[in-house]
Inverse folding.
């Protein structure tokens, strides 16, 4: 019996490896996928490099570090490659720190929303009409609420929110769309022969959900996660620009808020353009990643791309 289980696990592991290799081979053929992945690697390196400048000199601390010789915004120089802000803080250090915050906010909020959406979608699709109706009506109520407006109202009521509160609120308001897609997929899988065979063999509901349904919906969940990352990054940047972001965190949206608030919007392009370009490129990279993943998961898109 133990040997049988070991053989089954080895077979499943081999199948996952084979599917990954096949998917990776398809992904590499996508130009959008290669560009998106290259951009993501660049921003990941920026996030990792953000820890280095403050260790070289406290002057490069993105929030508190100030060049003692500078008390105003200056252009690029040998000491400050992108220049300094209105307090004499290094803009390159802030840009690198913003990459770290963008990844933290985008991936954390997307992961939590996808986790909630996948769990609720599988439960609604599998557990019957009553549970399905209750969960989907809840999803409908949350879906019609504009996330940015709700966060702005909460920030106005409770003051400026810290970064993790913003992540949690974004996640709580972005799961309904995913849950509806996963529910539809679960309803389709529930009537497949292998699910009926598992029921006949005496498998419990939890075993069927986690061992048979979840592996088949996870690729779709990962695809939607790439799109949720972009929306989370844009919402955080918008909140920071409007003055409702975490005042103790340096993000690209906060950099744009500082350049606007101090009146340097049209006088300091070295300060204005880098964070704006980074926000555009990182959201574009995740979008390209999602488009390429869509081609991996949907053979019909690959066939359409092959037709002259």
């Amino acid at each position: 019996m133990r040997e049988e289980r070991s053989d089954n696990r080895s077979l499943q592991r081999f199948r996952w490896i084979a599917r990954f290799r096949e998917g990776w081979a398809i992904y590499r053929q996508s130009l959008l996928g290669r560009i998106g992945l290259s951009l993501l690697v660049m921003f990941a390196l920026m996030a990792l490099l953000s820890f280095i400048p403050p260790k070289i000199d406290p002057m490069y601390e993105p929030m508190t570090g100030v060049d003692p010789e500078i008390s105003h915004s200056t252009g690029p120089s040998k000491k400050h490659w992108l220049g300094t802000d209105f307090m004499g803080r290094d803009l390159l250090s802030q840009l690198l720190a913003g990459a770290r915050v963008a990844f933290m906010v985008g991936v954390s909020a997307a992961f939590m929303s996808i986790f909630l959406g996948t769990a609720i979608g599988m439960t609604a699709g599998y557990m019957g009409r009553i549970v399905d109706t209750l969960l989907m009506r809840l999803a409908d109520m949350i879906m019609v609420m504009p996330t940015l407006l709700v966060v702005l109202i909460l920030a106005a009521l409770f003051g400026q929110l810290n970064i993790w509160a913003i992540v949690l609120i974004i996640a709580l308001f972005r799961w309904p769309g995913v849950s509806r897609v996963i529910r539809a997929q679960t309803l389709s899988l529930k009537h497949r022969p292998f699910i009926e065979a598992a029921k006949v063999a005496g498998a419990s509901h939890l075993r069927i959900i986690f061992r048979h349904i979840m592996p088949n919906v996870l690729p779709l969940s990962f695809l939607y996660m790439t799109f949720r990352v972009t929306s989370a990054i844009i919402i955080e940047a918008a909140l920071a620009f409007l003055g409702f972001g975490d005042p103790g965190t340096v993000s690209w949206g906060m950099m744009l808020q500082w350049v606007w608030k101090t009146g340097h919007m049209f006088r300091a392009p070295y300060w204005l353009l880098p964070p704006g370009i980074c926000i555009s490129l990182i959201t574009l990279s995740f979008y390209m990643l999602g488009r390429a993943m869509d081609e991996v998961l949907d053979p019909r898109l690959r066939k359409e791309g092959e037709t002259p």
